[in-house]
């Protein structure tokens, strides 16, 4: 639970400031995906326990800015049940901004994306999967 809280707070900080550390994780496009006007960030959040070396435990995240009003819209955390069920499943087939195209090679916009009205954080959990 503490790791998820730490990851959520770290990603919320990405949304609030877009500082230098956040900008290193900014995603400017995906192969086969249409260009989009909203921002996305993807990377790892350090969730090491006290006494562990920094970076010894990291959690992967993908943050999608709300397409509506990112500074006013809520932040939704999505985890997809794991272990063995990737949080990116939600990103690419459920609530995320994209879905696989009919050709199976390209991505198309998801008309039912929750990112239309909320800032979405997709998390891989537990740590190490």
Automatic annotation (TrEMBL):
Q: What SUPFAM superfamilies would the database entry show?
A: alpha/beta-Hydrolases (SSF53474)
Q: Which family does it belong to?
A: Belongs to the peptidase S10 family.
One Pfam family it belongs to: Peptidase_S10
Which PANTHER family did the record assign?
CARBOXYPEPTIDASE, SERINE PROTEASE FAMILY S10 SERINE CARBOXYPEPTIDASE
Record InterPro entries: AB_hydrolase_fold, Peptidase_S10
Protein name per UniProt: Carboxypeptidase
Q: Which GO terms describe its biological process?
A: proteolysis
Coiled-coil region = none
């Amino acid at each position: 639970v503490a790791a998820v809280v730490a990851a959520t707070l770290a990603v919320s900080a990405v949304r609030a400031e877009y500082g230098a550390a956040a900008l290193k994780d900014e995603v400017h496009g995906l192969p086969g995906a249409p260009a989009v006007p909203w921002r996305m960030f993807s990377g790892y959040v350090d969730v090491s326990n006290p006494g562990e070396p920094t970076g010894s435990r990291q959690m992967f995240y993908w943050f999608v800015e709300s397409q509506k009003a990112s500074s006013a819209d809520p932040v939704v955390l999505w985890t997809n049940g794991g272990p063995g069920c990737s949080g990116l499943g939600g990103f690419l087939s459920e609530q995320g901004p994209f879905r696989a195209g009919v050709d199976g090679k390209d991505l198309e916009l998801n008309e039912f994306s929750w990112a239309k009205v909320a800032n979405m954080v997709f998390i891989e959990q537990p740590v190490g999967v």
